[in-house]
Amino acid sequence: MKLLYPAVFTANEDGSYTVEVPDLPGCVTEGSDLAEAIEMGIDAASGWILGELEEGKGYPAASRYQNVAAPEGSFTSILVLDMDAYAEKYGSKAIRKNITIPAWLNTYGEKNNLNFSRVLTDALMERAAR
Hints:
Number of strands: 4
Oligomer: single chain
Number of domains: 2
CATH class of the largest domain: Alpha Beta
Strand content: 15-25%
CATH topology of the largest domain: Double Stranded RNA Binding Domain
Structural class: alpha+beta
């Protein structure tokens, strides 16, 4: 699942950048240059959301890019969060669930080489985002 969140980038006198994700309270980081600031922003926002999900909580919907005002000397950009890749790399909890589905749906999934865990995870993540 990919999520898009606007972030505010502020240039510092030493050439570094501070990054704040307004939709995720307290999600602030920085990088020594713009490229590192983007990486750090993605990591901080992904970690913030993964932490909420692992605690059984939801996460805030992202604001529209146009609605996020940047103070003077700052600019707004979009961070692309690949939550599947981040959770696979850094996630600490996995729960095994046994489910019951109709036989015809199982046959369909097997014929189409569907990963049932991935399908269920994607559907639940989409629902959690609402």
